[in-house]
Amino acid sequence: MRALFPGRFQPPHWGHIYAIREILKEVDEVVITVGSAQFNYIAKDPFTAGERIWMLREALREAGVDLSRVCTIPIPNVENNLEWLGRVKSYTPPFQVVYTGNPYVALLFREAGYEVRQQPMYQRERYSSTRVRELIIRGDPQWEELVPKSVAQIIKAIGGVERLRVAATGEAEPHKW
Questions:
Q1: pLDDT of residue 23
Q2: Which of 12, 29, 61, 153 could form a disulfide with 2 if both were Cys (CB 3.0 to 4.6 A apart)?
Q3: 53 and 74 in contact (C-beta within 8 Å)?
């Protein structure tokens, strides 16, 4: 059985890695779709699709996940949700079940006839990409505890800390409130 796990992964964090490991306990393969693939260098979507795929691969490798059971595919966003659903189906290999924590995505796939399961959650209040981005913008080093070491290293190597701060505030240094 093959599962679909859609997300933006801006950036990938320990909650994502936990979910993927748990999904792989139930299915043979997981297709991870990196959504909003065309967006980057903005506060909500600071990283490119290629950077997010790289971060995911290294984070999964760091967590000991068998990468032969994972397929990661970028999916550009479209404003028409049924068109987006068709795009997902055309960009991915066939899948039987969808894991998501997004009620709207769940509705779309359920109406299209797919089995939908709640993605496994791990300390959701702590692990969220929004929180990671907010900590980076504030200059709080705690963001590094929320992501695998490999993800933090990649973000630093690509200048992602400065990129996010500039995208969010117009300044390279964090605000001193």
A1: 97
A2: 29
A3: yes
* Rounded-to-integer distance, Cα 130 and Cα 138, Å: 12
Sign of CA dihedral 93, 99, 103, 107: positive
pLDDT of residue 177: 46
The residue behind tokens 């055309």 is 90
pLDDT number for residue 21: 96
Give the list of residues 6+ apart from residue 137 with CB closer than 8 angstroms, or none.
43, 164, 165, 168, 169, 174, 175
| Residue numbers in the chain where pLDDT is lower than 70 | 172-177
Q: Is residue 11 reached through a cis peptide bond, with omega within 30 degrees of 0 on the bond before it? A: yes
DSSP state of 38: T
Residue 4 confidence (pLDDT):
98
Closest CA to 30 of 84, 97, 126: 97
Alpha carbons 151 and 84: distance in angstroms, whole number: 28
How far apart are alpha carbons 22 and 145 in whole angstroms? Answer: 21
Measure the CA–CA gap between 46 and 102, rounded to whole angstroms.
21
